[in-house]
Amino acid sequence: MADFTVVVADPESGDTYQLDVDGQDANRFVGRELGEEVDGTAVGLDGYTLELTGGSDNAGRPMRSDVRGPNLTSLLSDGGTGFEPTRGGERKRVTVRGREVSEEVRQINAKITDRGSEDVADLLGEGENDE
After folding, report:
1. For residue 130, what pLDDT is reported?
2. Which residues are registered as beta bridge partners of 9?
3. Which of 42, 108, 115, 126 would give a disulfide with 55, using CB separation of 3.0 to 4.6 Å?
4. What's the mean per-residue pLDDT of the chain?
5. pTM for this predicted structure
């Protein structure tokens, strides 16, 4: 059974929310690819639409949108997700996960693309009593 931590970014306010998703709601993410849109009801945001922007697996390896499928791949990278070069021309072999969400993924990053009528903090129960 799938079990994810979904990190939802609100580009309008700049806030992020970490939500644990399991069971039926987590199965809505399995098989989706980065860049796809998902209904926000899976994480408790009724009326909202989320775009999948990234994620990582249980070992911390990042998902890359230019690698097909859900499997691990070792590639020679000159920069981008999974490797940040420190000097010009530097390349490195890195292990990354493909763009498809699978059971091995532990964190999914998403951003809000379409908004509902209610406020995000109110829907998630994080209203006025924040730190």
Report:
1. 47
2. 16, 111
3. 108
4. 91
5. 0.88
Q: Are 42 and 49 in contact (CB under 8 A)?
A: no
Instruction: Give the pLDDT score at 118.
Output: 87
Q: How is residue 68 written in tokens?
A: 């097909």
As a whole number of angstroms, the distance between CA 22 and CA 108 comes to 12
**CA separation (Å) from 104 to 3, 20, 22, 62, 128?**
9, 15, 13, 12, 36
Among all chains, which residue has been given the structure tokens 């990354």? 96
Cα–Cα distance list, 28 to 36, 57, 74, 95, 118 (Å): 12, 17, 28, 26, 22
Residues 10 and 50: their CA atoms lie apart, in Å, by 10
Specify the DSSP class assigned to residue 61. P
For the chain, the domains span 3-118
Residue type, 127: G
